[in-house]
Every structure is written in structure tokens, then in C-alpha cells.
């Protein structure tokens, strides 16, 4: 059974839509005869509803006995963003896909998209998600602490593991932001240990805490810091993988159940092989196979 509040909401909603879609203002008598909920309503009730609609921003116009709503002032202007802004907002939704902020983030982007916002999905940083995509693995707590430090221009101290099997290190950074790149998210800032701009993979960072005021202002292009840092660390390898004879995918085409790769990025190979495991298995080199296993164990333990 509907409550009184539901009846009031239903009546006011009907009144709003009736006036909004009318070609001209309507008389009070017309409202009582045509708008559901007002057939037995008093003049006092109608006046109270009109005052309420005005109080919440509905542009109600009253001229003598006629009542209307200005459609021109009722509708919000189109929502517009630059491609970069729309991508950032879209990424915020992606960051919450698998975490506690998921429903809220998806809801926010859905409302913006309904208003006309668009984002560029063709760039690498917005690549299709897999179980190993960093944007599904960052916790709300981590994001809150890092973004608060960025906003307040604070230095942070944290634990960092260079690889899944490596021991953690204590690092300090004047943090500038989080940058998505090729399915990963990087913490970017001025590294106090090396005294230079640097990035750290965000999912390998833990125990973030403030460590005083920042002294190094951010550079203009944080993405350039990530690209330069990754280029400096790039490692190329030759590899042999086993795969089903009919396999033809991102890792190449299998011939007699074998895929041979030359001069490929080792980091890319580890992530991609992990994504296709156990169908595809790295045979050589042994170090890459061990890194794939470590990554799979890391994900399984989360």
C-alpha cells in the first residue's frame, strides 16, 4: 500500500510533467481535471505543491489563474568535456569496477554519459580489462590517501615491491598523481632516493602515509615521466611458448603447438602469458616462466 509521501511525490511529479509538456500555461481548473492526483485536491494543496516545486528549482510561472513551467529554463545545458577530461572521468569509473566504490563510480559515469559526455576508448590506457588489469585492483583506501596527498601537496612514505617475488622497500616521494598507461596505473612524483622524477606501479605500493610537506612541484606532463621511466627499464627477450595447435591470438600463431617470439618486451610477455594461462605456457626462458607463475600466484592470493 502506497504511503502518503509516495502519493505526494506521485502528484507533484505528474504536475511537473503535465506543465512541462504543455504548449501553453494551464488553468487551475485544467490541472484538477487532467492531472492525476488533483481531482479531489484543494486549492491549498495545489498552492503548496507549486511553492515546493519552485523551492527545488523548477521554474514555475504563475499568471493570474494560469500555471506553467518554462522548458527553456528547466532543462540543464549540455554536459561537455574535453577528450582528456572525459577519459579521466571514465577511468574513475573503471577504477571502481571490482572494488567497494564500483557501484558509485559506474553510476556517476552513467549519468554523465547520459548527458552527452564521451570518452576515447581507443588509447592504450583504456584498454579492455582482464583479471590482471591494475584498474580493478586498487583499493579505495589507497586512492583516498594518494589523492589527498596530491591535493595537499604532501610527501608520502610507502612500501614498494619491484616484482611479485621481491622484498619490499621503503621509499619516499613528493607525489604528483596517478597515471594510467597500457592497462596499468602508476604512482608518479619526485623520488627522494634518486632525486629525480620517477614512477612506481601502483599495485606494488602499500602502507602509504604522509611524511611532511612536498618540496618539488609537479612537472607539466606526468605521462612523459611514465613513458621515459618505462623506456629506461625496457627489457627485450626471445621466448618459446607451448599452445594448442589451433591457437592464433595476441601472442601469435601456434605452429605444431609452439609459438616462437623474437625481441618482445619481457614485461608485456609476462602479463599476456598470464592472461592466457593455462592454455599457453612459457617454456623458455625460465626467468619469464617464473615471473608468470609469480604473477598468477599474486593474483590468486588477492
TrEMBL record:
Lineage: superkingdom: Bacteria
Domain WYL: 142-209
WCX domain boundaries: 244-300
UniProt protein name: WYL domain-containing protein
Organism of this sequence: Corynebacterium yudongzhengii
Amino acid at each position: 500500500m502506497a504511503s502518503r509521501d509516495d502519493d505526494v511525490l506521485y502528484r507533484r511529479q505528474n504536475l511537473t510533467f503535465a506543465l512541462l509538456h504543455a504548449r501553453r500555461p494551464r488553468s487551475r481548473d485544467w490541472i484538477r481535471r487532467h492531472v492525476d492526483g488533483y481531482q479531489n485536491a484543494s486549492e491549498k494543496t495545489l498552492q503548496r505543491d507549486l511553492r515546493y516545486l519552485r523551492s527545488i528549482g523548477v521554474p514555475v510561472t504563475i499568471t493570474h489563474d494560469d500555471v506553467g513551467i518554462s522548458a527553456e529554463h528547466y532543462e540543464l545545458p549540455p554536459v561537455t568535456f574535453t577528450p582528456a577530461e572525459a577519459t579521466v572521468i571514465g577511468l574513475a569509473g573503471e577504477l571502481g569496477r571490482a572494488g567497494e566504490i564500483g557501484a558509485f563510480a559506474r553510476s556517476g559515469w552513467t549519468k554523465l554519459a547520459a548527458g552527452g559526455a564521451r570518452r576515447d576508448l581507443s588509447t592504450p590506457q583504456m584498454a579492455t580489462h582482464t583479471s590482471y588489469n591494475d584498474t580493478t585492483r586498487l583499493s579505495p583506501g589507497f586512492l583516498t590517501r594518494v589523492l589527498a596527498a596530491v591535493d595537499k601537496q604532501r610527501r608520502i612514505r610507502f612500501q614498494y615491491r619491484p616484482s611479485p617475488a621481491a622484498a619490499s622497500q621503503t621509499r619516499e616521494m613528493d607525489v604528483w598523481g596517478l597515471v594510467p598507461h597500457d592497462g596499468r596505473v602508476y604512482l608518479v612524483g619526485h623520488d627522494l632516493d634518486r632525486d629525480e622524477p620517477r614512477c612506481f606501479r601502483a599495485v606494488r605500493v602499500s602502507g602509504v602515509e604522509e611524511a611532511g610537506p612536498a618540496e618539488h612541484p609537479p612537472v607539466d606532463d606526468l605521462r612523459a615521466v611514465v613513458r621515459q621511466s618505462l623506456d629506461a627499464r625496457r627489457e627485450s627477450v626471445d621466448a618459446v611458448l607451448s599452445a594448442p595447435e589451433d591457437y592464433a591470438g595476441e601472442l601469435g600463431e601456434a605452429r605444431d603447438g609452439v609459438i616462437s617470439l623474437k625481441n618482445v618486451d619481457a614485461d608485456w610477455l609476462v602479463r599476456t602469458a598470464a592472461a592466457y594461462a593455462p592454455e599457453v605456457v612459457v617454456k623458455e626462458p625460465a626467468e619469464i616462466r617464473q615471473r608468470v607463475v609469480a604473477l598468477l600466484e599474486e593474483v590468486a592470493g588477492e
